[in-house]
Amino acid sequence: MCGIVGYLGSKKAYPILVKGLKRLEYRGYDSAGVALLNGNGIEIYKKEGKVVQMESIVPAEDSLATLGIGHTRWATHGAPSDRNSHPHYSQSKRIAIIHNGIIENYASIKEGLSKRGYTFQSDTDTEVLVNLIEDILIHADVSLAEAVRVALNQVVGAYAIAVIEEGNPDQIVVAKKGSPLVIGVGEGEYFIASDATPFIEYTKQAVYLNEEEVALISLEKGLEIRTIANELKRPYVQELAIEIESIEKGGYDHFMLKEINEQPKSIFDTLRGRLLVNQGTIRLGSLDEYEQKFLTADRIIIVACGTSWHAGLVAEYLIEDLTRIPVEVEYASEFRYRNPIITEKDIVIAVSQSGETADTLSAIKLAKAKGATIFGICNVVGSSIAREAHVGAYTHAGPEIGVASTKAFTAQVTVFITMALSLGRKRGTISEQEFRRLILELDTLPKKVEETLKLDAQSKKIAAAYKDVPNCLFLGRGINFPVALEGALKLKEISYIHAEGYPAAEMKHGPIALIDEDMPTVVIATKTEHYEKVVSNIQEIKARDGKIIAIVNEGDVDVTRIADHVIEVPEVDERLSPLLTTIPLQLISYHIAVMRGCHVDQPRNLAKSVTVE
Ligand code: F6R
């Protein structure tokens, strides 16, 4: 939540900040602002709305500054408005700050500052922090970096901050705890950002700050990193692998559509080097490393949020079926607050595209403290969850920029398929013959996803027929029940149509009361052991005049005869089927949202990386 950027060097900062903020808008987009340091001191320009609205208020002369910081916001403290937008000045306007995170004890700090004569122009916790830093700067007569360090020792909460000071055109001070921050190291210039996308065309050298670290970035002195306990740290510079093309739309109207279409590649990339068909095996280094733990685990607990939680539910079917290890899937936010029973024989798998989701991060910290082994499945390399986990496997989906998760979901499911197969084989809970059959089939999946994407035109037609409905149900059984949940989430989050996912057989226990001619139901009715039962569920809906959109296998007869619309996906083993059945649901939601004029890549009220609890 919230994106931050900064530049320090000899180029004009403003265009770099604006381009960077646009790339970070997926993190929040209710207001945006920049602070530029030039001869006259610090100038702040900020405005409610997207970055493009803020651009209209910045005068040309200020855009000459070579030092600046910028922010795109997802409101936590204080409603979206010009005055609550970042950056924030300190009272004297000597310093300015941008902040991603939440200062939990801001009220008590504010009270103390108010008693010392500080007044506040916004409702934000961030303005409290910048004034605390100024107070220390003035009264302790220390450098800006030292004042930031001392201030952060008084703060409870999460932050990625950047602070600049009037009269100091040579430096930016940054710090991180619980929110991401990366420093780009160029030739005679530095960049800071929430992720590396704002500076990838300028430098691939990056330093990821660790928790509770403060960095003084100075053109003269270079990079000096200390912990907030004042321990000096050596910066670890790493080479980034991201390419600029992967963060651009590449001819698609929206990132979401591009990312849906990238799934054959992202699944292939996630399997690459792991699925070794010629050698008849799956190699997952991390699983091999922790083999004993997995072989003797009492149970696996999967913690995640949103779409990643749905991938966890798919995994529950896969892992229990193929390995016979009991699996529990938990919303990270609920797990951490209910005093869960965790032992050293538990394996906790955290699933997260961003690797920064605060609830998931807190859940694994708790489980780690209780002795569990933590396995991370993340997409963003070097992210907080990836670093907090003992071990893990990356999904190689590439940057996912559309706020609605698509290719990350199928990549997560792909990792789980490889894990379940590999573990099942190691534990002897799946026969060698079955293992070989499944890996051969898994190898065909990228191609089958490509075929499934050809259903775009058909999905668009269905979207046109249902774009104005107020409600929609999604049904599935077995491993496709979580796919139904995911289909409903996609539709509601990008088109604002109310949608619910249910196990098909649950209909008769309540939701069937909703069925009439105005209520469409999307049913996943591919060939599985539940097929006949799903056909009966569809009959029950048809008997009440409900409309059916069914996802079936090629050549289907029974459902095709009774459904209003069918979409045929290639037939695969049921356990691999979520990789295909998900695709038309993504496409239908996408087209409905576009037809309704919704902002597909940046749906209202949402942000991609949820770093608040
Ligand atoms: C939905 C969506 C969210 C995320 C959730 C967890 O399309 O994107 O529900 O799945 O916020 O995010 P990560 O996976 O980054 O932990």
Give an account of the 3D structure.
A hairpin with a 2-residue loop joins strand 2 (31-38) and strand 3 (41-48). The longest helix is centred in the C-terminal third of the chain and has 21 residues, at 407-427. With 613 residues, the protein is an alpha/beta fold. Helices cover 36% and strands 23% of the residues. It folds into three domains: 3-246, Aminohydrolase, N-terminal nucleophile (Ntn) domain (Glutamine Phosphoribosylpyrophosphate, subunit 1, domain 1, 4-Layer Sandwich); 249-430, Rossmann fold (3-Layer(aba) Sandwich); 454-601, Glucose-6-phosphate isomerase like protein, domain 1 (Rossmann fold). Helix 10 packs antiparallel against helix 18 (481-495), helix 17 crosses helix 21 and helix 18 (481-495) runs parallel beside helix 21 (578-595). It starts with a strand and ends in an 18-residue tail after the last helix. The model has no long low-confidence stretch (mean pLDDT 94). It has an eight-stranded antiparallel sheet with strand order 3-2-4-1-10-9-11-15. Strands 5-6-7-8-12-13-14 form a seven-stranded antiparallel sheet. The chain has 21 helices and 27 strands. Fructose -6-phosphate (F6R) binds next to helix 10 and helix 18. Fructose -6-phosphate (F6R) binds at residues 305-308, 352-354, 357, 360, 404-405, 489, 493, 609-610.
Short characterization:
The chain contains 21 helices and 27 strands. The protein is α/β, with parallel strands linked by helices and 613 residues long. It has an eight-stranded antiparallel β-sheet with strand order 3-2-4-1-10-9-11-15. Strands 5-6-7-8-12-13-14 form a seven-stranded antiparallel β-sheet.
